[in-house]
Design brief:
The complex is a heterodimer of chains A (about 110) and B (about 110). With about 110 residues, chain A is mainly β. Chain A has no helices and 11 strands. Chain B contains no helices and 11 strands. The chains are: A mainly beta (about 110), B mainly beta (about 110).
């Protein structure tokens, strides 16, 4: 079935450093979504990308969708301790009508 | 109201018990979902309801039985669970099953003893 591969699995950064997580698919994606899950919390929807080459920004977060719509990235500029959590990309499953999550990237930020 | 409410937040049940998880949303969303999440793993899809009808069952064992009484409510009935079923059970909703982000509830942390 449809799978999105996400790397890295973990990332430790010093507060103020940048962070990027990548999501890749072997097939073209109609859309990709990004979620954040704080420790002990639930996934929170961040954004959805639909268009080829799309770039969207939310304050210090920059989301990109590749030209071929097979990959995506989330970049955080100047991380803060509030950025700690797991970031998931999610894409449509086989046949559509459902969203399948990547493995997630756990971000640790040291103050 | 932009929330998905799940009850209970925590549940401990024996392997012979019958219990139900409840989920409610008042955003007018027409798609609702059950996900299961183990520690340090991504959410894993279990069921999809679209317009109150079950549209996807991801080969979930019959000891999990979903129910959608109306467009705002989603239940998950549990019976004869195994210890390996212990997990965080997340309910989510979206405007439809197409291109729309999911709103997740805070989940029910289930422990089967």
């Amino acid at each position: 079935g449809q799978q999105v591969m996400q790397i890295p699995q973990y990332q430790h950064v010093q507060e103020g450093e940048d962070f990027t997580t990548y999501c890749n698919s072997s097939t073209t994606l109609s859309n990709i979504q990004w979620y954040k899950q704080r420790p002990g919390g639930h996934p929170v929807f961040l954004i959805q990308l639909v268009k080829s080459g799309e770039v969207k920004k939310q304050k210090r977060l920059t989301f990109q969708f590749g030209e071929a719509k097979k990959n995506s990235s989330l970049h955080i500029t100047a991380t803060q301790t509030t950025d700690v959590g797991t970031y998931f990309c999610a894409g449509p499953g086989t046949g559509g009508f459902k969203t399948i999550f990547g493995a997630g990237t756990r971000l640790f930020v040291k103050a | 109201d932009t929330e998905v409410t799940q009850t209970p937040k925590h549940l401990v049940m024996g392997m012979t018990n019958k219990k139900s998880l409840k989920c409610e949303q008042h955003m007018g969303h027409r798609a609702m979902y059950w996900y299961k999440q183990k520690a340090k793993k991504p959410p894993e899809l279990m069921f999809v309801y679209s317009y109150e009808k079950l549209s996807i069952n991801e080969s979930v064992p019959s000891r999990f039985s979903p129910e959608c009484p109306n467009s705002s409510l989603l239940n998950l009935h549990l019976h004869a669970l195994q210890p390996e079923d212990s997990a965080l059970y997340l309910c989510a909703s979206s405007q439809n099953t197409g291109y729309s982000g999911y709103t997740f509830g805070s989940g029910t942390r289930l422990t089967v003893v």
